[in-house]
Design brief:
Layout: E1 72-77, E2 82-89, E3 107-110, E4 126-129, E5 132-135, E6 141-145, E7 149-150, E8 153-154, E9 168-173, E10 178-190, H1 196-200, E11 211-221, E12 228-239
Parallel strand pairs: 2-3, 6-11
Antiparallel strand pairs: 1-2, 1-9, 3-6, 4-5, 7-8, 9-10, 10-12, 11-12
Length: 240
């Protein structure tokens, strides 16, 4: 098998966490918040006698668990035989999404985006970025990547292209808690036209769902035999 290395995924302009601009996406800017609409006067309703109500027991609210703020320890897709430690990644000196340094061993997680378990659907601290509402600066979509092969040796995402709807993905945190996800889509994109903005900030994701997105090389090799021509993108949503 030919020697294959992982092509950088996309050019990015570094900015504040949760508000990174995608240089390859035309430099979209944050949309303005629309002004509140004018209120319409309505006729006052006629007063009616209020019936006497029986007292009811008020249920005790259940506190929302605090998301774990520590490190991610492990990434697993049992059905594909994926079981790997996590390497924290960001953007390299060229302004590109970095790739794991432990090429044949680790799955990379981009801490500049979201973290598994962070989304709290009861939290409505919304901001607006490029027409997409983001909770507390994060979309509830964590991004991971890994190699398929490196120097002719299989790497963690070797079988990621085989992921199918319903496959389970497990993300284990350093304190032992585990988040479960199920695959909902598996798509392949041309490496030169992959819509990274929509992949990292998915407009179609319901606000109360938490997703993880896994990106790796795929498809055929180019004429040099060094680079893949495509990118495989697998999305999974969190389940109980």
């Amino acid at each position: 098998m030919m020697n294959v290395r992982f092509l950088p995924l996309v050019l990015l302009a570094a900015g504040a966490i949760g508000a990174l601009a995608l240089a390859a996406c035309g430099g979209s800017s944050a949309a303005e918040t629309p002004a509140a609409g004018a209120t319409t006067s309505l006729p006052a309703p006629s007063a009616t006698a209020t019936p006497t109500m029986r007292p009811t027991n008020t249920p005790t609210p259940v506190p929302t668990p605090t998301p774990y703020n520590g490190r991610i320890a492990r990434f697993q897709v049992p059905g594909l035989g994926i079981d790997a430690p996590i390497e924290e990644l960001a953007i390299n000196s060229l302004g590109e999404l970095d790739t794991p340094k432990a090429e044949n061993v680790a799955v990379g997680w981009y801490y500049i985006y979201d973290k598994p378990g962070r989304l709290n659907p009861d939290n409505r601290g919304w901001v607006d970025f490029g027409g997409k509402q983001i909770v507390n600066g994060f979309t509830g979509n964590s991004v991971f990547s890994a190699h398929v092969y490196y120097h002719n040796v299989p790497a963690p995402f070797q079988k990621m292209a085989q992921a199918k709807a319903g496959d389970q993905v497990l993300v284990t945190m350093e304190d032992g808690r585990q988040y479960k996800y199920e695959v909902v889509s598996n798509q392949q994109y041309n490496r030169d036209t992959i819509p990274m903005g929509d992949i990292i900030w998915p407009k179609q994701k319901p606000a109360d769902e938490e997703w993880i997105t896994m990106i790796t090389c795929g498809g055929e090799l180019d004429a040099t035999g060094w680079e893949y021509l495509s990118r495989d993108v697998v999305v999974a949503r969190r389940i109980p």
